[in-house]
Design a protein that fits this description.
- It contains ten helices and two strands, in the order E-H-E-H-H-H-H-H-H-H-H-H.
- The chain is mostly helical.
- The chain has one domain.
- Strands 1-2 form a two-stranded parallel ribbon.
- Helix 1 links the parallel strand 1 and strand 2.
- The chain is globular and about 60 Å long.
- The chain starts with 5 loop residues before the first strand and ends with a helix.
- It binds flavin-adenine dinucleotide.
- Flavin-adenine dinucleotide is lined by residues 9-15, 32-35, 39-42, 44-50.
Length: 180
């Protein structure tokens, strides 16, 4: 062990960001991980800096839609039952957090955290000289049916109420932005 000001455990995006900020403020930092930096969850994300993503996975629609999610042929959900049964407390607390009040509390906490995300990340991107790897073009969401778009209205309203800016585009505007 080295004599350092700060030890950060876990070299995902959260730990690496915390360690870099501490170093930029003049602290000596030891970053500890058995794996390479970014080898955990951070290795598999979809590469969006998702500052709009304040609605948690756990919400009441998960409970009402559970049969379809578990057994639908085109469901995006895949459950490893041996993992689930080995972690019953996690599974039960996830389901408990799908109730409206806890889901809303999590959304509010996430929105508060995400409102600082750009200010936390941009100086690190600049320090790394990696601005050319980041494109600030917003997020385009497209529904293939009018019913799908209507079903998303409540979530959009929740995001707007939490400070996420969203604008509805006409078909032509969307096509001009993303011809594919
Ligand atoms: C499929 C998928 C897509 C996603 N897409 C996006 C996206 O597009 N945009 C977005 O913003 N977010 C996205 N996310 C979420 C985002 O990837 C995670 O929120 C983020 O990577 C979590 O970072 P982390 O540093 O907390 O965790 P991790 O990246 O998992 O890092 C934790 C680290 O801690 C280490 N560790 C654990 N225990 C110990 C220990 N005891 N001692 C030492 N080290 C330890 C692990 O080895 C790991 O390296 C996505 C997530 C998934 C799963």
């Amino acid at each position: 062990m080295t004599d350092v000001d700060l030890v950060v455990v876990g070299a995902g995006i959260v730990g690496v960001s915390a360690a870099l900020w501490a170093r930029m403020r003049g602290l000596s930092v030891l970053l500890v991980d058995a794996e390479a930096p970014g080898a955990g969850t951070s290795s598999g994300n979809a590469c969006t800096i998702a500052t709009y993503g304040c609605l948690p996975m756990c919400d009441p629609s998960v409970i009402s839609g559970l049969p379809g999610l578990l057994f639908g042929s085109d469901s995006p959900l895949s459950v490893d039952w041996s993992h689930a049964l080995r972690h019953p407390r996690w599974m039960l607390s996830f389901l408990a957090n799908c109730r409206a009040a806890p889901s809303q509390r999590i959304a509010e906490d996430l929105a508060a955290l995400l409102s600082h995300a750009d200010a936390g990340l941009n100086p690190l991107i600049a320090e790394a000289g990696a601005e050319d790897l980041v494109a600030a073009r917003g997020q385009l969401t497209i529904w293939s049916t009018a019913a799908g778009a209507r079903a998303a209205e409540a979530d959009l309203a929740r995001q707007r109420a939490l400070g996420v800016e969203a604008r509805e585009l006409t078909r032509d505007e969307a096509q001009a932005l993303e011809p594919g």
